[in-house]
Amino acid sequence: MKKINLLSLLAAILSAVIIILLYYKSTPFLEELEGLSLGLMFDVRGKKAPDPEIAIIAIDEKSLKEIGRWPWSRKLWAEFIESVNRYDPRLIILDVWFSERESASADRDLLNALLNSDKVILPIVFEINESTSASDISDWALDKSSITGTGFFLEGKGVIASLPEFNRAVKQGGHINVSLDTDGTIRWTPLIIRYKEDLYPSLALAASKELANDETLGVVCGERIDLGGATIPVDEYSRMLINYAGQEHTYPYYSLVDVVKGKVEKTSLKNKILLVGASAQGIYDMRVTPFSSNTPGVEVNANIIDNIKNSSFLVRKPVQRMIDIMFILSAGLLFGLIIPRVRAVLAFPFALSVILGYSALAFFFFTEGYWISTVYPILGMVFAYISSTAVRLFYGERKITEIRRMFASYVTKEIVDELIKNPEKARLGGQIKELTIIFCDLRGFTGYSERHSPGAVVSKLNEYFAAMTECIMKYNGTLDKFLGDGIMAFWNAPLDQENHPELALLCALDMWERFESLRRKWKSESNESWEIGIGINIGEVLVGNIGAPGRKMEYTVIGDNVNITHRIMELTRGNEGNIIISGSLYKRVKDMVDADEIGDILLKGKEEPVTLISVKGLKKS
Questions:
Q1: Over the stretch 44-61, which tens digit does the pLDDT of each residue have?
Q2: Are 512 and 534 in contact (CB under 8 A)?
Q3: Is 287 helix (H, G, I), strand (E, B) or coil?
Q4: Which of 271, 282, 250, 252 is nearest to 59 (CA)?
Q5: Could you tell me which residues come within 8 angstroms of residue 317 by beta carbon, excluding any fewer than 6 positions away?
Q6: Which residue from 20, 25, 189, 482 has the least number of CB within 10 angstroms?
Q7: pLDDT digits (tens, 9 = 90+) for 547-568
């Protein structure tokens, strides 16, 4: 058992190590599952209340239908900015850029609208793989003196931005690059990107910076960004994990054309943070989030601003790796220690309970703002369970084979099955235990064996042994061995039998009756006749698997009471009666047996006499 437990523990730990290696390699398939598990937690948590100060001005189907096909003229955008300013919003964040010239008149109208508003923030897009020329955006770069620590930033090789005069007309701008996971879902947002020698904030971070009335950001690379009273947790690439409020349209939407025409109640937009972007399917700005595969990109930015403004973050820092590894190893140790020590029927419920418990713990942490891995630790638990169970099954099959090999020829199939279900009952290795023992001897057979061929002798012995063995098995006895033309059997091992004295006596009487039938048969066939003598005794003996390990082992009994039983059997030759039992056994069965006392007999090798009883049969009721 100790060997099985140790191997199960090692197998479980090895499984945990394999999962840790997969974890460090960031296996794409498992990473996608991890992302899906986060989405599931979002689904279970459901929608949370969005910031009431955030609203979206949508370039929707209604606007396209009334204004016309996309893209729109700069004159329309100038009219929109003038119209939305009349609502007195707190901030106007455009998810639209103006990178090409239209006409001198149209461009001038938009420029004047931007100059007359101090609330507009414009977007830029960094190209990660291609280098393109672009207008100057250096005014939007972050102050490097406020950046400390070591870390990495995504690097842009080119940038797409609005025309230089438009950029200079607004106070702030930021990038709208997204960070896609391998399954195409946006779970992270890069808050800072390096371009040339400078660092630039995201559109949402730039907006948050304006909302905080703070011209500088405190950046500790790979750890956090300090902005006003908010501490934004970021990973080593300065990415923030987005804590989505819900599905698309969690934030209030207003049609852009209704704003232009003044159809929206002024109180609906007054002092609000307004994000302007596309929601119409034809403009193709739909994003995949943990909540939905059809979320407008502008609403992703709304969630990011909401997170920063209200310090509603999900935290998953680099130290999370150590926490995940701790859980994976702990699961391996727990399963490796427990699974081998509980019954198979309890092992699966135990494993399932631990997995469900860990899932509940992960969800609890999620609701508290911490994302801990679920797929890797749970996969570690599953692997640990499978490996521990596999070791257990392998050795269990070996144990079953060993038990069958050891006991199949000694006891009934029912007893073997019981030992397989409860192998500890076999108690191999030897123990002192009270047993009832039978010796049965075929008298007068030696002369027959000398006069007849070996084939004839074996034929008679096989017929005799088959009949006697059948009786032993009928009464759930353990057949110990054949001794020439004798038989030895015992009761109360390997399984406990409370009525073992009665079973042994009933077996002896049945053996006698079966032998009488055989004797009549043999008499009619060859005029040969023999007798049997049966001795029965009860007492403590050593019972167990005895022999040479790896060579020959035998489940048997040894001890003084075994010798006494054999001596009693030998006395059937000189005393009246074919079944003789000891006085100690008679005390246990006297209520059921019709018997005569032979007396106290001093057996060979004994100093004290033994009371012997001759059994006639069962008492008649």
A1: 999 999 999 999 999 999
A2: yes
A3: strand
A4: 282
A5: 223, 233, 235
A6: 25
A7: 666 566 677 889 999 999 999 9
Alpha helices in 226-319 (DSSP H): 256-260, 266-269, 297-310
Q: CA–CA separation, 13 vs 515, rounded Å?
A: 61
Contact 418, 395 (CB under 8 A): no
Task: State both tokens at 8.
Answer: 């199960």
Whole-number CA gyration radius for the chain: 45
The token duo for 145 is 């003196």
The DSSP code sequence of 93-143 is: EES----S---HHHHHHHHHHHHT-S-EEEEEEEESS--------GGG---
Length of the chain: 621
Q: CB neighbours (10 Å) of residue 159?
A: 22
For every residue of 140-205, DSSP letters joined together read: G---GGGEES----EEESEEE---HHHHHHSSEEEE---EE-TTS-EEEEESEEEETTEEEEBHHH
pLDDT band, very low/low/confident/very high, at 410 (cuts 50, 70, 90): low
Q: Which of 514, 441, 442 is nearest to 475 (CA)?
A: 514
Choose among 516, 553, 522, 559: nearest CA to 539: 559
**Structure tokens given for 66:** 């009334």
Q: Shortest CA distance to 179 belongs to which of 35, 365, 362? A: 35
pLDDT, position 139:
86
CA gap 528, 459 in Å, rounded: 14
* CA dist list (Å): 220 to 190, 232, 236, 313: 14, 10, 10, 17
